UniProtKB/TrEMBL annotation:
Residues 346-391 form the NADH-ubiquinone oxidoreductase 51kDa subunit iron-sulphur binding domain. Keywords: 4Fe-4S, Flavoprotein, FMN, Iron, Iron-sulfur, Metal-binding, NAD, Quinone, Translocase. Its EC number is 7.1.1.-. This is NADH-quinone oxidoreductase subunit F.
């Protein structure tokens, strides 16, 4: 898989004006260390924020720019920052970077951390100044060993240069930053489960309210942002609100650029920084090169395994939250997966639901018992042993595990692709339904929950 932001040869070259996240990338894929980063205007935005802007001005600028979370939920970043308490006496507060990138088919944050570690550090430094947080943590997926090595080196470089630690840039502001590698659980992508894990607890989501802005790490005010989100902050501060809002394509309600990609049996799988509002067809055909010879596009997911499947006729949708919502699912992480015509959807969904079932924290009943139930049903259908009524039971689980029915968003994300697969490819599921034995009720087949 190519980790690159290069588009086809006929595309405009990357520049600070059009590719704020990736213009500093090296052609050889090696990390951009401090000297090179500063030679490419690195930390200039941080110096501007410290010298010329009040903390409230930084927050307002990010809010006015319309920056939204890039981890999948898309919550407005400036609004989230505004939830942090104004009380100056609450001087112990934290900034957490959610780098637990375990969404299947998603690898965008990995590229930023491995090749541009100082961009993340600068984004966290400006954010810490705005939020008056004295300590930050990068909660990193444990399998990202290269990212951990590069981030730790970059943190040490920033400390030696006076960009982290005490009295940063002579401002009197102190900020410590630590890289914390997690044990490897998908649920840690949920911000309160991440907080529990950071504290050394079991990674269960917390009840909200109270929200982390009021009661977070060790009971103190805490803000949690995604890697890509924080990496947008320096460009917004350095270039201004009007510039940032003008990057997106006409019709997009989301501002700026987004790291987007395509995986699967496409000719050029990869990762590119593109303006919000490009069509999925442009991403698929012009950047990913379409399907490999001998394969045909059957369906696709727009942003990770927790988003619904779409058909080839949906490729004209614009890649922003509202554009993808118009065709029936979510933008998610923006890294799409192409499913070719050789794939059986029942087998694909069984594999996905096994992953989501295994990664459930087990806290709430619908998720703990419902996801293993869906796996048992899908395994039976896959083996041609499904019973009449099994598809209806699966659709019932999609409803029972939907938004607002479970403690966190894990289960709703898990069943969204299942519901869409049955919607578009029901005959493939029906093909796995065996004839019921005479005298045996359709749903009498035992289902062992959690086995």
């Amino acid at each position: 898989m190519t980790l690159t932001s290069f588009g086809p040869a006929n595309r405009i070259a990357r520049s600070p004006e059009t590719h704020p996240l990736t213009w500093r990338l090296r052609d050889d894929g090696e990390p951009v260390w401090l000297d090179e980063y500063q030679a490419k205007d690195g930390y200039a935005a941080a110096r501007k924020a410290f010298a010329d802007m009040a903390t409230d001005d930084i927050v307002q600028t990010v809010k006015d720019a319309g920056l939204k979370g890039r981890g999948g939920a898309g919550f407005p970043t400036g609004v989230k920052w505004g939830l942090m308490p104004k009380d100056e006496s609450m001087n112990i507060r934290y900034l957490l970077c959610n780098a637990d990138e375990m969404e299947p088919n998603t690898w965008k944050d990995r590229m930023l951390m491995e090749q541009l570690p100082h961009l993340l550090i600068e984004g966290m430094l400006i954010s810490a100044r705005a939020l008056k947080t004295y300590r930050g943590y990068i909660f990193l997926r444990g399998e990202y060993t290269t990212a951990a090595k590069h981030l730790n080196r970059a943190v040490e470089e920033a400390k030696a240069a006076g960009l982290l630690g005490k009295n940063i840039l002579g401002s009197g502001f102190d900020f410590e930053l630590f890289v914390h590698t997690g044990a490897g659980r998908y649920i840690c992508g949920e911000e309160t489960a991440l907080i529990n894990s950071l504290e050394g607890r079991r990674a269960n989501p917390r009840s909200k309210p109270p929200f982390p802005a009021a009661v977070g790490v060790w009971g103190k005010p805490t803000c949690v942002n995604n890697v890509e989100t924080l990496c947008n902050v320096p460009a917004i501060i350095g270039n201004g609100v009007d510039w940032y809002k003008a990057i997106a394509r006409e019709g997009s309600e989301d501002m700026g650029t987004k790291l987007m990609g395509f995986s699967g049996k496409v000719k050029n799988p990869g990762l590119w920084e593109l303006p919000f509002g490009v069509t999925a067809r442009e991403l698929f055909e012009d950047y990913a090169g379409g399907m490999r010879d001998g394969f045909k596009l059957k369906c696709w997911q727009p942003g990770g395994a927790g988003t619904g499947f779409l058909l080839p006729e949906h490729l004209d949708a614009q890649m922003y939250a509202g554009g993808i919502a118009k065709v029936g699912t979510r933008m998610g992480t923006g890294l799409a997966m192409a499913v070719d015509d050789s794939v059986n959807m029942v087998s694909l969904l069984r594999n996905m639901e096994q992953f989501f079932s295994r990664e459930s924290c087990g806290f709430c009943t619908p998720c703990r018992d419902g996801l293993p139930w869906s796996v048992k049903l899908l395994m039976a259908i896959e083996n041609g042993e499904g019973q009449p009524g099994d598809i209806e039971t699966l659709l019932g689980l999609v409803g029972f595990l939907g938004p607002g029915k479970t403690f966190c968003a894990h289960a709703p994300g898990a069943v969204e692709p299942l519901g869409s697969a049955i919607k578009y490819f029901r005959p493939e599921f029906e093909a796995g339904i065996a004839q019921a034995k005479p005298g045996v009720p359709p749903l009498a087949r035992p289902i062992v929950i959690g086995a």
